[in-house]
Structures are given as C-alpha cells and as structure tokens.
Amino acid sequence: MDFSVVAVAREDDSPVEEPLRVAAVADRLGYREVWAGEGPTWDSFVLATAIGRATERVALTAGPVAVSVRDAFGIARGAASVAAVVGRPVGVALGTSSKRVVEGVHGVPRVRPAAAMEASAAAVRGFLHGKPGEPAAPGSVFPRRLPPPGGPLTVAAFGDRAIATAAAHADRMLLDIVSPDQVRLLRAKLEAAAARAGRTSPPTLASWLPVAVDPDPHSLAQVLRSIAGYLTVPGYSDMFEAAGFGEAVELARTGADPGTLVRALPAAAAGTVGLVGDLDAVRARAEEYAEAGLDEIALVPATAGDPGGERTLTALRPA
Fold first, then answer.
1. Alpha helices in 254-309 (DSSP H)
2. Residue 279 clears pLDDT 80, i.e. is over it
3. What is the average pLDDT score of the chain?
4. Does residue 43 carry a pLDDT above 90?
5. I want to staple 102 with a disulfide (CB 3.0 to 4.6 A). Which of 110, 210, 224, 318 is the partner?
6. What pLDDT, on a 0 to 100 scale, did the predictor assign at position 73?
7. Between residues 226 and 296, which one has the greater pLDDT?
8. Residue 233 has what pLDDT?
9. Selection from 55, 49, 111 nearest residue 80 by Cα
10. 303 closest CA partner among 199, 184, 216
C-alpha cells in the first residue's frame, strides 16, 4: 500500500496555515507526495507553491480543483507554473466539487457536472503533455514557454460517468472517504470502464481517508466532523445506516448543525471510512483497503491535538 499525504485547509477553527505544517512534516518524514487541496480558504496552486518552497523533496498534486470554476488551460498552466517555481513534478486532480462550493462560494452555476468533468479531463490531459514552442492552446498565436509539469492527472470520481472519464483520461482515480466495501465495488467499475476504453491496465486507485493514530478526544472529534458532511450524500447515507448510525443520518436530514451531528456519532463511526485507533488497528484497516483493491491511501491526518499530524504521520512514515 502506498501512502501519500493530504494538506488541505479544514473549514473549521483550525489554523489556516495548518496545511503547510502537515506538508513540512510529510516531507521531513520521507512521504512521496503531498496533495495541496483546494477549498474556500486556499487556492490549490498557491498552496502547492508555498508547500514546494517550504519543502525539499516531496512531489505535489494540486487539487482536486473544481472543473465548473476553472478552465482547462488555466488548470494546466497553474500546474506548469508551480512546477517551474518549485523545480519538482506537479500533478493535477480534477473534481466536480459540490453545489454548496461552486454556487455558494464561487457564484458559478454547477450545470451538468459530469459533462464538464469529461470535457475538462480530455482537454487538461492534452495541455499537460504539451511541449515548449507548441501553441499554448489549439489555434493560439501564443507559444508554450513552460515545460509540462510532469505529474499525473487524477480524476475524482464516484458516479458511473465520472468513473468512465477517469478510465479514459486519468493516470489515477481518486475516491473520497469510502469504506472497503465501496472500494471493492468502485474498483470493479473502474476496471470494466478501462476495458471499454481500450486500456490494457486501469488507472491506479487512491482515496483520501481521515487518519488518526492513538487519537485524543480532539482528534477524534475532528475526524467525526469530517465524516458528518457525508451523512446525507447518496451512496454514503445507506452505508452509515447499515453500520448502525441511522440516528445521525436522520439528524443530518433535518438540517442539524455539525456540532450536533458530531455528538450524535459514536466513536466507532470514525473507523467506518477512516483509519483511526492504535497503530496495529490502523495498519490492519489499511490492509483491508488494500485487499479491497485500493492502491494508495492519501492520509488526511487529524491535526487537532496533533499539530501538523506529527504523531500520526510519524507512526505511518515510509520504511
């Protein structure tokens, strides 16, 4: 199992510079890659540049960036710009994000997100492999001046159409907060879609998963808060109900606030779609994900009670 690390600003009361601390810890401990997550707080390309300037070795992936908000050329140019500044490979992850972010934050209509993802992935892939001297875009009079960023193209997917897009265009498909059973199902769909697309091997499969080794109450609450946002999402609500957390799902459907939902979720919920517990329990859970077909776990370390995720990332550091 390959481990990478996610450096993303949580939209809570955690310090806004916390992603930089997480990335610095990951680089020092020898992790291969850091994801510079995008959200209402951080622009992913700015964050990736800041991480690159503050670290020495770690490869970078910017995103997922929302395809309804950014055009394909701008996405590829952003990755190439970061790579030129930091002198390291930079990949791009694409996602459809949510209506709450696309429309509620950016004020842009989130229309036909699956179609937008398909068009963006095809275009971004072409832009990522362009060479200096070529037109910056088809029909453009401006030549490309920066070399390609050198990192992989990742597509965040869950629905069938997004999986087909990942199978056709991506080097890696990304899942977000899933159980091993969901990994097993989605892996089968990815392999079938890759075969239909004529690929001899499918993209690698990764998932962002919350993780906390030997968590204190603050870390546990932070993990539960990250899960609470998924309680009413189709494909997740059924899973949580089947796991015995129906009361929290019903509360979420009534519009309960995050604090109420965290209090309603038992501690065991953190282990349903994450790696939480002592080191042996976390490693055993990671093995379950590997057996289900996951190639890479992108660790989203709890930082409340563990600044920079130091305790958790040290425990799971590469050999």
1. 258-264, 279-292
2. yes
3. 93
4. yes
5. 110
6. 94
7. 296
8. 78
9. 49
10. 216
More confident residue, 173 or 231: 173
Say whether pLDDT at 58 is over 90: yes
Predicted pLDDT at 197: 97
Q: Say what angle helices 180-196 and 279-292 make with each other, to 10 degrees.
A: 30
Could you tell me the residue ranges of all domains in the chain? 2-212+285-315
106 φ/ψ angles, rounded to the nearest 5 degrees: -85, -20
Rounded CA-CA distance 23/165 in Å is 29
DSSP annotation string for 28-97: HHT-SEEEE--SSS--HHHHHHHHHHH-SS-EEEEEEEETTTS-HHHHHHHHHHHHHHH-S-EEEEEE--
CA quadruple 37, 261, 213, 207: dihedral sign? negative
Q: What is the residue-wise DSSP string for 194-244?
A: HHHTT-SSPPEEEEEEEEEES--HHHHHHHHHHHHTTTTSTTTHHHHHHTT
Instruction: Give me 91's structure tokens.
Output: 């990949």
State the Cα torsion 208-213-215-220 to the nearest 10°. 20
Instruction: Lowest mean pLDDT of 39-48, 215-224, 264-273, 288-297, name the range.
Output: 264-273
CB atoms within 10 A of CB 139: 6
More confident residue, 103 or 163: 163
The model's confidence at residue 41, banded by pLDDT at 50, 70 and 90, is: very high
Tokens of 95: 């996602």
Q: How far apart are CA 5 and CA 68, in angstroms?
A: 25
* CATH architecture group of domain 2-212+285-315: Alpha-Beta Barrel (3.20)
Cβ atoms of 93 and 64 closer than 8 Å: yes
Amino acid at 215: P
d(CA 67, CA 95): 6
49 close to 91: Cβ distance less than 8 angstroms: no
